[in-house]
Write a structure and sequence with these properties.
With about 475 residues, the chain is mainly alpha-helical. The protein has one domain. It contains 22 helices and 2 strands. About 0% of the residues have low confidence. A hairpin with a 6-residue loop joins strand 1 and strand 2. The longest helix has about 35 residues. It has a two-stranded antiparallel ribbon.
Length: about 475
């Protein structure tokens, strides 16, 4: 519960992210008596922070997290119409339902996929890692080329430290601090926490947060009536969110926009979207919490993070001596069942926590932003230092805060960089081990059935959009035909 309250604080603070909330809570979770307690804190923070980002999105038209951007369109329009309480109640209920559906799909699909994944070898895992990196680059904001650049930079960082095959130091420059590689948590805190502070400091006018004039009462009964009428919309948003979240690198923000776009396309009156329609709040709210659960599917089954949050989770699980992958259901089955149970309980606890957050942050969001950013800097330094009690990690955090600020100013997404840092060792180890097995031959990487499917998917993910654009350009428009 305390971790969920912390998730509310970070998620409802404009500009901060659920990823940062998880990154800050992980060092604290290491001091818990057992892994279940630590994972409960991480799960509670991730689900709550994603929802909490919708609070300032509806109140102020400022998304608290990137996943809340889609909610600003119709949610804030409802607030301008004096229906902020109704919009927030609808958002909270749909977030709980979406998360619940996502967790149920996780429980039933993950073990089945794990049985299939037992047939994977080094060749398949290599392509799986490359596919995850490529998809994260392709679906990230900005151009695909910039996403690939960020992923490549992350992979370069992953080579610092002890060689995964030979065991010799690489790129350490004689520093013992780099023998274990670049610290993952300090990099995360710097990229997602300190860089946000730098962006706000750059614009002095942004240091004064806008105030909230009124705080509306939650319209619970009207919300329940709407849910009965629009349950198909809730179900569609939850399914879109879960399956989008299961794509490596997609994340809750892409899931929310995908669900919003789907509802707009199938709507009988799409022009009303953005004017305060119910479906414009229901779809993204159901999708982003469903995506949080969906991202755990590839994380548990394949050891590949579905988003930057589960990337941190995988790092935490490894430190708890839990090894994500198809064997986790056999080697740590009891722990996996604990994760499932905690995820289900979190969805029900989200109702009282969300209600408290809506009421509380209506007042907190009136505070000047410079006070909030000062607290972020303090949490960032403490979080980076607490992991290994090392000042070097604090320097790494500061350095990557500057790097993240520069990359985003150049519209280079940082999520692929994080996935490159996480998946780099997996890609390198499986590539080199596979080549050792085959005596340097790439044949099995290309001819084994599952490997063949994976690299064809990789080609399709890049060539498909280009072919579709070419076909649209060459196809004659109906307006040019004689019958038109």
């Amino acid at each position: 519960m305390l971790a969920m309250l912390f998730g509310l604080f970070v998620g409802a603070t404009p500009g901060l992210t659920a990823t940062m909330a998880v990154a800050l809570i992980v060092p604290i979770s290491f001091y818990m008596p057992n892994p279940t307690t630590g994972l409960a804190m991480i799960l509670g923070v991730s689900f709550t922070a994603i929802f909490a980002g919708d609070i300032p999105a509806i109140y102020l038209r400022i998304p608290g997290t990137p996943a809340s951007a889609a909610t600003t369109l119709d949610g804030h329009a409802m607030a301008l119409q004096g229906r902020a309480g109704y919009a927030l109640a609808l958002d909270l209920a749909c977030s709980c339902i979406g998360g619940l559906i996502g967790v149920l799909l996780l429980i039933f699909l993950a073990p089945q996929l794990a049985r299939f994944a037992l047939g994977f070898s080094n060749f398949e895992y290599f392509w799986l890692g490359v596919l995850g990196l490529s998809l994260s680059a392709a679906v990230s904001s900005g151009s695909t080329a910039r996403g690939l650049l960020a992923a490549g930079f992350g992979m370069l960082l992953s080579t610092v430290g002890i060689d995964v095959v030979s065991g010799t130091p690489r790129f350490t420059f004689g520093r013992s601090d780099l023998m274990m590689g670049v610290g993952f948590i300090p990099v995360m805190i710097g990229l997602f926490g300190l860089s946000e502070v730098l962006r706000n400091v750059r614009h002095r006018a942004a240091l004064s947060a806008p105030s909230i004039r009124t705080e509306s009462r939650l319209a619970v009964r009207e919300c329940l009536r709407t849910l009965r009428r629009r349950f198909r919309t809730v179900l569609r948003g939850s399914l879109v969110g879960t399956f989008t979240g299961a794509l490596p690198g997609a994340g809750a923000d892409i899931a929310a926009w995908a669900a919003y776009g789907l509802e707009q396309k199938i709507s009988k009156d799409p022009q009303q979207f953005g004017q305060g329609v119910d479906d414009g709040v229901i779809a993204p709210a159901s999708a982003h919490n469903g995506a949080v659960a969906g991202a755990w599917i590839p994380a548990l089954v394949f050891g590949i993070p579905g988003d930057s949050v589960t990337a941190i989770v995988i790092g935490a699980m490894l430190m708890y001596d839990l090894k994500p992958g198809p064997l986790i259901f056999e080697q740590s089955g009891g722990q996996v069942q604990n994760i499932f149970a905690i995820a289900l309980i979190t969805q029900f606890l989200l109702l009282p926590c969300g209600y408290l957050g809506i009421k509380t942050f209506g007042a907190i969001l009136r505070l000047p932003r410079n006070l909030i950013l000062t607290a972020v800097v303090v949490f960032s330094v403490v979080g980076a230092f607490a992991l290994r009690s090392s000042l070097f990690d604090v320097y790494v955090m500061v350095a990557f805060g500057v790097v993240g600020f520069y990359l985003e100013s150049q519209r280079v997404p940082v999520a692929p960089l994080i996935l490159g840092l996480i998946l780099g060792p997996m890609v390198e180890e499986n590539l080199r081990t596979g080549l050792i097995k085959t005596g340097g031959s790439f044949g099995p990487f290309l001819t084994r059935p599952i490997s063949l499917v994976l690299w064809l998917l990789l080609v399709a993910s890049f060539a498909g959009p280009w072919i579709a654009r070419r076909l649209r350009r060459t196809a004659p428009s109906s307006s040019d035909s004689p019958t038109a």
